[in-house]
Write a structure and sequence with these properties.
Rossmann fold, 2 domains, six-stranded parallel β-sheet, single chain, six-stranded mixed β-sheet, alpha/beta, Dihydrodipicolinate Reductase, domain 2, binds NADP nicotinamide-adenine-dinucleotide phosphate, globular
Protein backbone atom coordinates (compact mmCIF):
# COMPACT_ATOMS: atom_id res chain seq x y z
CA UNK A 1 0.00 0.00 0.00
CA UNK A 2 1.45 3.37 -1.04
CA UNK A 3 2.04 5.62 2.00
CA UNK A 4 0.21 8.97 1.60
CA UNK A 5 1.17 12.39 2.98
CA UNK A 6 -1.65 13.73 5.13
CA UNK A 7 -2.54 16.88 7.08
CA UNK A 8 -4.56 17.37 10.24
CA UNK A 9 -6.83 20.44 10.37
CA UNK A 10 -6.70 21.57 14.01
CA UNK A 11 -3.62 21.76 16.22
CA UNK A 12 -4.56 21.76 19.90
CA UNK A 13 -8.13 20.40 20.07
CA UNK A 14 -9.18 17.02 21.45
CA UNK A 15 -10.00 15.41 18.12
CA UNK A 16 -7.08 17.13 16.35
CA UNK A 17 -4.66 15.62 18.84
CA UNK A 18 -6.35 12.20 18.72
CA UNK A 19 -5.75 12.38 14.98
CA UNK A 20 -2.10 13.36 15.43
CA UNK A 21 -1.73 10.49 17.92
CA UNK A 22 -3.23 7.95 15.51
CA UNK A 23 -1.21 9.23 12.56
CA UNK A 24 2.14 9.48 14.40
CA UNK A 25 3.15 5.98 13.31
CA UNK A 26 0.46 4.95 10.87
CA UNK A 27 1.47 2.34 8.30
CA UNK A 28 -0.43 3.92 5.36
CA UNK A 29 -0.46 7.65 6.23
CA UNK A 30 2.44 9.96 7.01
CA UNK A 31 1.67 13.04 9.12
CA UNK A 32 3.14 15.75 6.87
CA UNK A 33 1.33 18.90 8.09
CA UNK A 34 -0.76 20.31 10.91
CA UNK A 35 -2.89 23.33 10.03
CA UNK A 36 -4.53 25.32 12.79
CA UNK A 37 -6.24 28.50 13.89
CA UNK A 38 -4.22 31.64 14.79
CA UNK A 39 -3.71 30.53 18.41
CA UNK A 40 -0.74 28.20 17.65
CA UNK A 41 0.17 29.47 14.18
CA UNK A 42 3.89 29.01 13.42
CA UNK A 43 4.51 27.13 16.67
CA UNK A 44 6.54 23.92 16.62
CA UNK A 45 4.15 20.99 17.04
CA UNK A 46 6.13 19.79 20.05
CA UNK A 47 5.36 23.11 21.81
CA UNK A 48 1.60 23.00 21.28
CA UNK A 49 0.07 22.06 24.65
CA UNK A 50 -0.87 18.37 24.65
CA UNK A 51 -4.44 17.97 25.92
CA UNK A 52 -4.96 14.19 25.88
CA UNK A 53 -4.42 12.11 29.00
CA UNK A 54 -2.12 9.69 27.14
CA UNK A 55 1.52 10.58 26.68
CA UNK A 56 2.38 12.84 23.73
CA UNK A 57 3.60 10.54 20.95
CA UNK A 58 6.76 11.25 19.02
CA UNK A 59 5.51 13.63 16.31
CA UNK A 60 7.37 14.79 13.18
CA UNK A 61 9.23 18.14 13.40
CA UNK A 62 6.46 20.33 11.95
CA UNK A 63 5.35 23.91 12.51
CA UNK A 64 1.63 24.72 12.56
CA UNK A 65 0.50 26.32 9.29
CA UNK A 66 -2.60 28.46 8.69
CA UNK A 67 -5.68 26.33 8.04
CA UNK A 68 -7.43 29.29 6.39
CA UNK A 69 -4.60 30.42 4.07
CA UNK A 70 -5.09 29.48 0.39
CA UNK A 71 -1.32 29.93 -0.12
CA UNK A 72 -0.44 27.51 2.67
CA UNK A 73 -2.98 24.98 1.39
CA UNK A 74 -1.75 25.20 -2.19
CA UNK A 75 1.86 24.88 -1.05
CA UNK A 76 0.99 21.70 0.86
CA UNK A 77 -0.79 20.28 -2.20
CA UNK A 78 2.32 21.02 -4.30
CA UNK A 79 4.49 19.29 -1.69
CA UNK A 80 2.39 16.14 -2.11
CA UNK A 81 -0.12 16.34 0.75
CA UNK A 82 -3.16 14.57 -0.73
CA UNK A 83 -5.40 13.87 2.28
CA UNK A 84 -6.59 16.07 5.16
CA UNK A 85 -8.37 14.98 8.33
CA UNK A 86 -10.58 17.77 9.62
CA UNK A 87 -11.22 18.34 13.33
CA UNK A 88 -12.61 21.83 12.77
CA UNK A 89 -15.72 23.21 14.45
CA UNK A 90 -18.69 22.95 12.11
CA UNK A 91 -18.79 26.64 11.10
CA UNK A 92 -15.09 26.68 10.21
CA UNK A 93 -15.43 23.34 8.43
CA UNK A 94 -18.23 24.76 6.26
CA UNK A 95 -16.02 27.71 5.33
CA UNK A 96 -12.62 26.02 5.04
CA UNK A 97 -13.00 22.38 3.96
CA UNK A 98 -14.08 23.35 0.39
CA UNK A 99 -10.85 25.33 -0.02
CA UNK A 100 -8.80 22.23 0.83
CA UNK A 101 -10.91 20.13 -1.55
CA UNK A 102 -10.45 22.68 -4.33
CA UNK A 103 -6.68 22.50 -3.87
CA UNK A 104 -6.91 18.78 -4.76
CA UNK A 105 -6.65 17.46 -1.19
CA UNK A 106 -9.25 14.85 -0.19
CA UNK A 107 -10.89 15.89 3.08
CA UNK A 108 -12.18 13.36 5.63
CA UNK A 109 -14.22 15.29 8.14
CA UNK A 110 -15.31 14.83 11.73
CA UNK A 111 -17.43 17.97 11.57
CA UNK A 112 -21.17 17.93 10.88
CA UNK A 113 -21.08 20.66 8.20
CA UNK A 114 -21.17 18.38 5.13
CA UNK A 115 -22.85 15.31 6.58
CA UNK A 116 -25.84 14.27 4.46
CA UNK A 117 -24.88 16.71 1.65
CA UNK A 118 -25.12 15.44 -1.95
CA UNK A 119 -21.79 14.43 -3.41
CA UNK A 120 -20.13 14.03 0.02
CA UNK A 121 -20.26 10.37 1.07
CA UNK A 122 -21.34 9.96 4.67
CA UNK A 123 -20.09 6.58 5.75
CA UNK A 124 -19.63 4.13 8.60
CA UNK A 125 -17.32 1.49 7.11
CA UNK A 126 -19.16 -1.50 8.61
CA UNK A 127 -22.58 -0.20 7.51
CA UNK A 128 -22.50 1.51 4.12
CA UNK A 129 -19.00 1.18 2.58
CA UNK A 130 -20.38 1.19 -0.97
CA UNK A 131 -21.54 4.80 -0.52
CA UNK A 132 -17.89 5.80 -0.94
CA UNK A 133 -17.92 4.59 -4.53
CA UNK A 134 -21.52 5.36 -5.45
CA UNK A 135 -21.39 8.99 -4.40
CA UNK A 136 -17.88 9.95 -5.35
CA UNK A 137 -17.83 9.03 -9.07
CA UNK A 138 -14.15 8.17 -9.38
CA UNK A 139 -11.63 9.94 -7.22
CA UNK A 140 -12.95 10.75 -3.78
CA UNK A 141 -12.76 14.47 -2.86
CA UNK A 142 -14.64 14.83 0.42
CA UNK A 143 -16.24 12.39 2.88
CA UNK A 144 -17.72 12.58 6.37
CA UNK A 145 -17.72 10.36 9.41
CA UNK A 146 -20.65 10.46 11.85
CA UNK A 147 -21.53 12.05 15.13
CA UNK A 148 -20.00 10.27 18.15
CA UNK A 149 -23.36 9.54 19.83
CA UNK A 150 -24.58 7.63 16.82
CA UNK A 151 -21.91 4.91 16.88
CA UNK A 152 -23.03 2.91 19.94
CA UNK A 153 -26.65 3.25 18.82
CA UNK A 154 -26.41 2.45 15.14
CA UNK A 155 -24.01 -0.49 15.04
CA UNK A 156 -26.26 -2.83 17.08
CA UNK A 157 -29.45 -1.41 15.53
CA UNK A 158 -28.11 -1.92 11.99
CA UNK A 159 -27.48 -5.59 12.79
CA UNK A 160 -30.92 -6.05 14.37
CA UNK A 161 -32.66 -4.12 11.57
CA UNK A 162 -31.23 -6.51 8.98
CA UNK A 163 -32.48 -9.54 10.91
CA UNK A 164 -35.83 -8.38 12.27
CA UNK A 165 -36.88 -5.11 10.55
CA UNK A 166 -36.62 -2.11 12.87
CA UNK A 167 -39.99 -0.38 13.45
CA UNK A 168 -39.16 2.10 16.19
CA UNK A 169 -36.81 2.87 19.05
CA UNK A 170 -36.21 5.06 22.07
CA UNK A 171 -32.72 6.04 23.17
CA UNK A 172 -31.36 7.89 26.20
CA UNK A 173 -27.66 8.78 26.35
CA UNK A 174 -25.10 9.61 29.03
CA UNK A 175 -22.26 11.27 27.12
CA UNK A 176 -18.73 11.98 28.25
CA UNK A 177 -17.55 15.58 28.66
CA UNK A 178 -14.94 15.36 25.88
CA UNK A 179 -17.82 15.17 23.39
CA UNK A 180 -18.27 18.91 24.01
CA UNK A 181 -14.64 19.77 23.14
CA UNK A 182 -11.59 20.72 25.20
CA UNK A 183 -12.78 24.05 26.66
CA UNK A 184 -16.18 22.63 27.61
CA UNK A 185 -14.61 19.59 29.28
CA UNK A 186 -12.04 21.61 31.26
CA UNK A 187 -14.72 24.04 32.47
CA UNK A 188 -17.02 21.22 33.61
CA UNK A 189 -14.17 19.39 35.36
CA UNK A 190 -13.07 22.60 37.11
CA UNK A 191 -16.62 23.47 38.17
CA UNK A 192 -17.41 19.88 39.17
CA UNK A 193 -20.82 19.99 37.51
CA UNK A 194 -22.29 19.78 34.07
CA UNK A 195 -25.40 21.01 32.30
CA UNK A 196 -27.18 17.73 31.60
CA UNK A 197 -28.86 18.61 28.26
CA UNK A 198 -27.15 18.84 24.84
CA UNK A 199 -29.13 21.11 22.51
CA UNK A 200 -29.54 19.72 18.98
CA UNK A 201 -27.80 16.40 19.67
CA UNK A 202 -30.95 14.23 19.60
CA UNK A 203 -32.15 15.73 16.29
CA UNK A 204 -28.69 15.30 14.69
CA UNK A 205 -28.34 11.71 15.87
CA UNK A 206 -31.82 10.74 14.75
CA UNK A 207 -31.38 12.30 11.29
CA UNK A 208 -28.00 10.61 10.76
CA UNK A 209 -29.40 7.18 11.68
CA UNK A 210 -32.31 7.62 9.26
CA UNK A 211 -29.96 8.66 6.49
CA UNK A 212 -27.46 5.82 6.99
CA UNK A 213 -30.04 3.06 7.34
CA UNK A 214 -32.55 4.58 4.89
CA UNK A 215 -35.10 4.10 7.66
CA UNK A 216 -38.43 5.90 8.35
CA UNK A 217 -39.90 4.62 11.65
CA UNK A 218 -40.73 6.27 14.98
CA UNK A 219 -37.87 7.41 17.22
CA UNK A 220 -37.57 9.26 20.54
CA UNK A 221 -34.12 10.36 21.68
CA UNK A 222 -32.97 12.11 24.83
CA UNK A 223 -29.26 13.03 24.80
CA UNK A 224 -27.56 14.08 28.03
CA UNK A 225 -24.08 14.84 29.35
CA UNK A 226 -22.58 13.11 32.37
CA UNK A 227 -19.63 13.87 34.66
CA UNK A 228 -17.15 11.56 32.96
CA UNK A 229 -14.24 12.52 30.72
CA UNK A 230 -14.68 10.03 27.84
CA UNK A 231 -17.18 7.46 26.60
CA UNK A 232 -20.76 7.65 25.35
CA UNK A 233 -23.28 5.26 26.94
CA UNK A 234 -26.71 4.69 25.34
CA UNK A 235 -29.81 2.97 26.71
CA UNK A 236 -32.04 1.66 23.94
CA UNK A 237 -35.40 -0.06 23.55
CA UNK A 238 -36.37 -1.03 20.00
CA UNK A 239 -39.38 -2.72 18.42
CA UNK A 240 -39.25 -4.90 15.31
CA UNK A 241 -41.54 -6.44 12.70
CA UNK A 242 -40.20 -9.92 13.47
CA UNK A 243 -40.17 -11.66 16.83
CA UNK A 244 -37.08 -12.71 18.75
CA UNK A 245 -35.66 -14.01 22.00
CA UNK A 246 -32.47 -13.10 23.86
CA UNK A 247 -30.49 -16.03 22.54
CA UNK A 248 -31.47 -15.25 18.95
CA UNK A 249 -30.56 -11.57 19.38
CA UNK A 250 -27.13 -12.49 20.74
CA UNK A 251 -26.57 -14.80 17.79
CA UNK A 252 -27.60 -12.10 15.31
CA UNK A 253 -25.26 -9.53 16.87
CA UNK A 254 -22.34 -11.97 17.04
CA UNK A 255 -22.79 -13.13 13.44
CA UNK A 256 -23.10 -9.55 12.13
CA UNK A 257 -20.03 -8.50 14.08
CA UNK A 258 -18.03 -11.44 12.74
CA UNK A 259 -19.20 -10.75 9.20
CA UNK A 260 -18.34 -7.00 9.32
CA UNK A 261 -14.76 -7.38 10.53
CA UNK A 262 -12.42 -5.30 8.37
CA UNK A 263 -9.15 -6.91 9.30
CA UNK A 264 -7.42 -5.56 6.17
CA UNK A 265 -7.67 -2.01 7.61
CA UNK A 266 -5.06 -0.93 10.20
CA UNK A 267 -7.53 0.90 12.48
CA UNK A 268 -10.29 -1.71 12.44
CA UNK A 269 -11.30 -3.32 15.73
CA UNK A 270 -10.93 -7.11 15.82
CA UNK A 271 -14.73 -7.10 15.66
CA UNK A 272 -17.02 -4.04 15.71
CA UNK A 273 -19.34 -5.35 18.47
CA UNK A 274 -18.55 -7.01 21.78
CA UNK A 275 -21.22 -8.56 24.01
CA UNK A 276 -20.90 -8.19 27.79
CA UNK A 277 -23.30 -8.83 30.69
CA UNK A 278 -23.14 -5.18 31.88
CA UNK A 279 -21.34 -1.99 30.88
CA UNK A 280 -18.35 -0.92 32.95
CA UNK A 281 -17.57 2.61 31.77
CA UNK A 282 -14.00 2.50 33.08
CA UNK A 283 -13.01 -1.02 32.08
CA UNK A 284 -14.71 -0.98 28.65
CA UNK A 285 -13.47 2.37 27.32
CA UNK A 286 -10.75 0.87 25.11
CA UNK A 287 -12.70 -2.19 23.90
CA UNK A 288 -10.89 -3.54 20.85
CA UNK A 289 -13.17 -6.35 19.67
CA UNK A 290 -11.13 -9.06 21.40
CA UNK A 291 -10.87 -7.73 24.92
CA UNK A 292 -10.68 -4.64 27.08
CA UNK A 293 -7.11 -3.26 27.16
CA UNK A 294 -6.42 -1.07 30.21
CA UNK A 295 -4.31 2.09 29.55
CA UNK A 296 -3.32 1.08 26.00
CA UNK A 297 -1.20 3.34 23.82
CA UNK A 298 -3.66 4.49 21.11
CA UNK A 299 -0.77 5.66 18.92
CA UNK A 300 0.24 2.06 18.31
CA UNK A 301 -2.66 -0.06 19.60
CA UNK A 302 -4.99 1.10 16.87
CA UNK A 303 -7.88 -1.29 17.63
CA UNK A 304 -8.15 -0.05 21.23
CA UNK A 305 -11.28 2.09 21.66
CA UNK A 306 -12.67 1.10 18.24
CA UNK A 307 -15.27 -1.50 19.30
CA UNK A 308 -18.79 -0.90 20.63
CA UNK A 309 -19.73 -2.87 23.76
CA UNK A 310 -23.34 -4.10 23.92
CA UNK A 311 -24.73 -5.27 27.25
CA UNK A 312 -27.78 -5.97 29.36
CA UNK A 313 -29.70 -7.47 26.42
CA UNK A 314 -33.33 -8.25 27.22
CA UNK A 315 -36.48 -9.10 25.25
CA UNK A 316 -39.30 -7.75 27.44
CA UNK A 317 -41.82 -8.62 24.69
CA UNK A 318 -41.48 -10.96 21.66
CA UNK A 319 -40.91 -8.06 19.21
CA UNK A 320 -38.89 -5.79 21.55
CA UNK A 321 -35.22 -5.65 22.54
CA UNK A 322 -33.64 -3.46 25.18
CA UNK A 323 -29.90 -3.04 25.51
CA UNK A 324 -27.14 -0.66 26.55
CA UNK A 325 -24.11 0.15 24.41
CA UNK A 326 -20.90 2.08 25.01
CA UNK A 327 -18.01 3.39 22.93
CA UNK A 328 -15.10 5.83 23.04
CA UNK A 329 -16.31 9.12 21.58
CA UNK A 330 -13.01 10.69 20.51
CA UNK A 331 -11.64 7.37 19.16
CA UNK A 332 -14.41 5.28 17.55
CA UNK A 333 -16.74 8.30 17.45
CA UNK A 334 -14.23 10.72 15.91
CA UNK A 335 -10.50 10.36 15.09
CA UNK A 336 -10.36 6.56 14.92
CA UNK A 337 -13.57 6.39 12.92
CA UNK A 338 -12.49 8.97 10.34
CA UNK A 339 -9.03 7.39 9.89
CA UNK A 340 -10.76 4.00 9.43
CA UNK A 341 -12.89 5.62 6.73
CA UNK A 342 -9.81 6.97 4.95
CA UNK A 343 -8.16 3.54 5.17
CA UNK A 344 -11.25 2.03 3.56
CA UNK A 345 -11.11 4.61 0.75
CA UNK A 346 -7.39 3.95 0.24
CA UNK A 347 -7.97 0.19 0.16
CA UNK A 348 -10.65 0.78 -2.52
CA UNK A 349 -8.11 2.83 -4.54
CA UNK A 350 -10.26 5.97 -4.30
CA UNK A 351 -7.46 8.31 -3.22
N1 LIG B 1 -15.11 15.54 20.79
C1 LIG B 1 -15.76 14.55 20.23
O1 LIG B 1 -16.05 13.49 20.87
C2 LIG B 1 -16.17 14.64 18.79
C3 LIG B 1 -16.74 13.51 18.18
C4 LIG B 1 -17.15 13.58 16.83
C5 LIG B 1 -16.98 14.75 16.14
N2 LIG B 1 -16.44 15.84 16.75
C6 LIG B 1 -16.27 17.05 15.97
O2 LIG B 1 -14.87 17.29 15.80
C7 LIG B 1 -14.63 18.70 15.73
C8 LIG B 1 -13.60 19.08 16.77
O3 LIG B 1 -14.08 18.76 18.06
P1 LIG B 1 -13.15 18.78 19.36
O4 LIG B 1 -13.85 17.97 20.38
O5 LIG B 1 -11.74 18.47 19.00
O6 LIG B 1 -13.21 20.33 19.79
P2 LIG B 1 -12.13 21.20 20.61
O7 LIG B 1 -11.38 20.35 21.54
O8 LIG B 1 -12.91 22.33 21.15
O9 LIG B 1 -11.14 21.73 19.48
C9 LIG B 1 -11.56 22.69 18.53
C10 LIG B 1 -10.69 22.62 17.31
O10 LIG B 1 -11.19 23.55 16.37
C11 LIG B 1 -10.15 24.37 15.88
N3 LIG B 1 -10.62 25.75 15.73
C12 LIG B 1 -11.28 26.49 16.65
N4 LIG B 1 -11.55 27.72 16.15
C13 LIG B 1 -11.03 27.74 14.90
C14 LIG B 1 -10.98 28.72 13.87
N5 LIG B 1 -11.52 29.93 14.02
N6 LIG B 1 -10.37 28.41 12.72
C15 LIG B 1 -9.83 27.20 12.55
N7 LIG B 1 -9.83 26.23 13.50
C16 LIG B 1 -10.44 26.50 14.64
C17 LIG B 1 -9.05 24.30 16.93
O11 LIG B 1 -7.84 24.41 16.22
P3 LIG B 1 -6.48 24.94 16.95
O12 LIG B 1 -6.17 23.90 17.94
O13 LIG B 1 -5.55 25.07 15.82
O14 LIG B 1 -6.85 26.26 17.58
C18 LIG B 1 -9.24 22.94 17.58
O15 LIG B 1 -8.43 21.94 17.00
C19 LIG B 1 -15.98 19.38 15.90
O16 LIG B 1 -16.57 19.63 14.64
C20 LIG B 1 -16.80 18.31 16.62
O17 LIG B 1 -18.17 18.44 16.45
C21 LIG B 1 -16.02 15.80 18.06
Amino acid sequence: MQRLNVAVLGAGGLVAQRLQQRLASHPWFELAAVAGSPRYLGMALDDVPWVLEDERPSLPPLNVVDVSSPNDVQALAKEGVCVAFSALPSEEARRLEPMWVEAGITVFSNASAFRRKDGVPFVIPEINPRALVEQSAGTLRHACATNCTLLPLILPLAALNEAYGLEGYTMRSEQGLSGGGQAYMEAALAEGKVKPTIPGEAEKTEAELRHLLGWHGEATLDCGRTMRRDGHHVFVEATFAGSMDEEGVEQVLSAWSHDRRMSHLPSAPHQPLMLAPTIDVKAHLFADGNGFPQSPNPATERAAGMAVVVANLRCPRPNTVSFEAFSHNTIRGAAGGVVLLAELAHSMELL
